[in-house]
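hey all, quick one before standup. I had two proteins in the batch that finished overnight and I want to keep them in one place so we stop losing track of which output belongs to which input. First protein below, input sequence then structure tokens straight from the run.
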Amino acid sequence: MILKGGNLSPKLSSAVGKAQTVYETIASSTPDFPLLKYGLRRSQLFVASFHLNHDFHGSIIHLISAGGPCEGAAFALLRPVVESYIKGMWLFYCADDTKIERTIADKSVRTSLEIMMNEVDKKHGHLHFSQIRSNLPRLHSFTHGGFQQIVRRFDAGGGWGSSYTDEEKRSLLVQASWTATAFARMYCLNAEGPESASRKKIEDSYEANLRSF
């Protein structure tokens, strides 16, 4: 059975367009990263995490823009968008050399997301991930085929198909774009310094397109 999707409503189509603008601004504005400035291995993992985050962000936009039937996969990708941001920040700012080398060697680093967020917050002196913490349990359910996904496999009349509302899809686009923008902001800050013109351009794109959407 193929689950067929429909056309996008004007409001959702607008949200997709705005998220796409943010995605393209990040893609075109991020500068080359000075890999040797902070240590090659550490910088490579930071850039790789950022690239992965950008990949997931674009995939969410693509899946929602298609109008179904693969919208569930778009929601499942929000947790990887968030995790790549948390892990990239932790690897860059907090991981010791042993954990950097274990990650490079594709070996397990037994550090939970909660510990990673706490260590990054401590390093920066403020709650860097305050907007993310409360949503993590819900993201787990969407990613691992939990009830958040299962109950959206049928509509009110009992028919089969994805039943995500336009508001849920719009919120997904905003959350993914906010996280991608936050990561891009830190990438540019470390690549160019506090007066980074690239960082300002990316921040301005999010503000203009999605801040009040």
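OK second protein, same deal, sequence then tokens:
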Amino acid sequence: MKNYFKLSQSKRYLVTCFFIITLLLSGCKKKNSELETYRQNMESFFVNIATYNEAINNIDATKDDATAQLLTQLDNLNAEFTKMAGYSVPEDFHAAASLATEAADYMNKANVSFHEAYDGEYNADSESQAKEYYARANTRVKYMISILHGQIPSGEGVSITTKNAKDFTPVDDQNMTSPEENGDE
């Protein structure tokens, strides 16, 4: 009877180990799947951004419809940023989530300002404001690229406060002035 009890314990131990390993592997598979989905989404985002950027750079400014072409491409770019901000960000890259939202917000403001600058009568102040917002959106994308490559972003206006290796905030907007603060809005 003693041997039977030992055998049962070892079987229980093996079954328990198998169950735990199965749970761990299924959890890793989910995590890997989430990372892979995010990687694919971001890869698609970067390809689409490059395509829109190329289209904008190839607009013939001498054509009558150049402004309409530019605004259409900026609308497409804005939609791409909005879609990117909606991606589910894996825990490994959680610092990129707030950057994605900020980038999309700034791109939306840039798009609105570009429309104000070029729809109808030209507005130089709106164009200047749009360029500032556009630059801020692209700066956040650069920070995201750094994070996705496992690097800590650096540069002017970047303040990193680490709590642990995966928990940092790369942008310090407290030290940056907005177009509104400059009276440009």
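Flagging for whoever picks this up: Helices lie at 2-57, 66-85, 94-118, 124-148. Residues 1-8, 17-28 have pLDDT under 50 and may be disordered.
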